[in-house]
Amino acid sequence: MKPTLSIIVPCYNVQNYVATALQSIVQNTQPENQNRVEIIIVNDGSTDQTAAAINAQLSGCPIASHVITQENAGLSAARNTGMAQAQGNYWLFLDSDDFYQNQAIDKILAVIDAHQPDIIEFDATIFYGENDWAAQTLYHSYFADIANPTQPENSKIQRTFQENRWYVWSRCYHKELFQNQTFERGKLYEDFMTIPYLYPQAQSIFRLPESLLAYRQNHSSITANISHRHIADIFYGLQKAIAAETTQPQYRELWQILQLKTWRLIVAYSVKRFLRTRKTAYLANVQRFRAQLRQQNQRNWGWQFGYFGSVLAKRLFRLR
Predict the structure, then answer these.
(1) pTM beyond 0.70, yes or no
(2) Which of 73, 93, 143, 144 has the smallest number of Cβ neighbours within 10 A?
(3) Residue 118 in 3-state DSSP?
(4) Which residue has the higher pLDDT, 300 or 119?
C-alpha cells in the first residue's frame, strides 16, 4: 500500500542522536497508522558511526524504512535526495538531532484525513540537552484552522511573512507544492530560500496549535559564529526574493515583506562582521543590490527598523 506520509531524515555525523529521532517516529505513531508512514533516511556521507546507529535502530522497525547513502553534499542535497524517493502524498522533514513528541504523527495523519490541506503548521519546543529545556515555543502561526492564503491581501499570510519563521521541520507539506521547488544546494539558510515560495501555491493551510517537535539548539551556535558566507548566502536569498517580485507580481506584498526581513537579517549580522571580515567582497555584494535597497529605504526602511536602525542601515550600506 502506498504510504500517506513520507518522513525525510537527512543524517550527517549524528551517531549520538539519530536513534532518538527514529525512535520518536515509531513512538508517535499508533500501530494502526504505521503502514501509512514511510521513513526515508539519507546518510549524507557520515564519517562516524551514524550508519551503524541507523541499522541498529531499523532492525525490527514496524514502519517501512529506506536508507540512502550518498557522498557528503550538504543538508539541502540530502533533503532533495529524500524527496526524489518519497512515495507519500504528504512530506515531513525531521532533522536527525531533533525528535517528535505528543503523538505528532497520529495528529498530523488525522488532519490529513479530515481536511487534506496543502500545509499543516505546528509548533516546536527548544531544548539544549536532555535536562535543559528552554521555556520557549518556536513558530506561532496566524492560521486558526483551514485558511486560503492565495490572496496577498489576506492578513494572516502577510503576518506569517512578517513573523519570518520558515523552519522546514515545523510543517507538513503536500508533495505537489515541491513540484517545481527544491532546496538550494550548498547554501546556508536553505529554509527561508524555499518555504516562503510554497505559500502562494497553497490552497489551504491548517494550524495545529501544539508543540509536536523538540528542536535541539546548541548554546554555542546562537548567532555566535557569523561569517562572510552567512552574509553572502543571505544576499543570495535576497536576490531570489527580488526576482520573485518580478515573476509573481500578484504576490508583491509578500515578496516585499520577505525582502525587508532579509535586509533586517543582513543588517543584524553585518553589525557583527562588517569591520572584521572581507570588507571588499562584502561591499561588492552591497553594490549589486544598492538600487533595490535604496528603493526599499525610500518606501519603508524607517518603518521596518525605526529611526536609529534606519540611520545605521544608511551608513552601513552607504545609501546617501
Answers:
(1) yes
(2) 144
(3) coil
(4) 119
